[in-house]
Design brief:
With 267 residues, the chain is an all-alpha fold. The longest helix is centred in the C-terminal third of the chain and has 18 residues. It is globular and about 65 Å long. It starts with a helix and ends with a strand.
Length: 267
């Protein structure tokens, strides 16, 4: 497909059906960074109320940097993958201490922050500063497979990147990526997800009965009730003892939980 034809299709859809999110309306770099942490492996509609409340409590990196981890986990509770909250707090501390309270402008600088990988660094730089970064996520991947690899299976990101670079709108990459993401989201609703042809595609394991569910239950109990024994946590979490042990060991390794003489608490 010709580059300009492809661009016209994507832009036309965005004009008609572009989505609206609070972090698109408020282009504060800090708010955009927060949104990218929250959106990892989490549906957009679930993120919106958390993002709004978070930005009311901690409207700047300095506020979050000085917050207690227990308060941070309390506000994150229910969003899942709780280590993201710890990484976000650590990123805020680095922004405050190393970057003068200003979110870094380039992917290279952003990757110095805790919890920021290649995708997040590119997305934050692009959406916060209109930086022409190259990055791929599930909706973008879906669009390129649909238009450029309709007959192929196991399409790699390495196959996609050259086309992504060729078609990138370097004058206004922010809006271009929004348009790509929105087209990809639309495709998933009206056809069999083309993203399944990606070599990176994996199905998320069920949440019910998972280690993730047990970890979340443990953290909610410690945040709401304070320090607890393993017996109390076993009763509250309602899981097998082996599952609770694995969850507690993992949480301690992630420095989300501390233990002393059999009593567990938020550090």
């Amino acid at each position: 497909m010709e580059t300009e034809t492809f661009r016209k299709i994507i832009r036309s859809n965005f004009r008609k059906e572009g989505r609206s999110f609070p972090w698109r309306e408020n282009l504060d770099p800090w708010g955009i960074l927060v949104s990218e942490f929250m959106l990892q492996q989490t549906q957009t509609e679930r993120v919106i109320p958390y993002w709004k409340r978070w930005m009311e409590i901690w409207p700047s990196p300095g506020g979050l940097a000085g917050a207690e981890l227990e308060a941070v986990l309390r506000e994150w509770s229910g969003l899942g993958y709780n280590r993201r909250a710890k990484y976000l707090k650590a990123a805020a501390e680095a922004i405050q201490n190393e970057f003068g309270g200003v979110v870094p402008r380039t992917p290279e600088e952003l990757k110095r922050l805790s919890g920021v990988g290649n995708y997040s660094a590119g997305a934050i730089a692009c959406f916060a500063y209109n930086y022409p970064a190259l990055f791929i996520e599930t909706n973008i991947r879906t669009v390129f497979i649909h238009f450029f690899f309709p007959e192929r299976d196991l399409v790699s990101d390495g196959d996609i990147f050259p086309i992504l670079e060729k078609t990138l709108d370097r004058k206004n990459p922010r809006t271009w990526y929004w348009a790509l993401m929105d087209y990809g989201a639309r495709l998933k609703k009206c056809t069999v997800n083309p993203g399944r042809k990606s070599s990176a595609y994996t199905r998320q394991s069920p949440f019910k009965g998972s280690l993730r569910q047990t970890r979340g239950a443990v953290l909610r109990a410690l945040v709401s009730q304070g320090p607890l024994s393993a017996g109390d946590l076993y009763r509250i979490a309602g899981t097998e003892k082996d599952g609770l042990t694995a969850a507690l060991n993992g949480l301690k390794a992630d420095h989300l939980v501390a233990e002393e003489e059999g009593i567990y608490r938020i550090p």
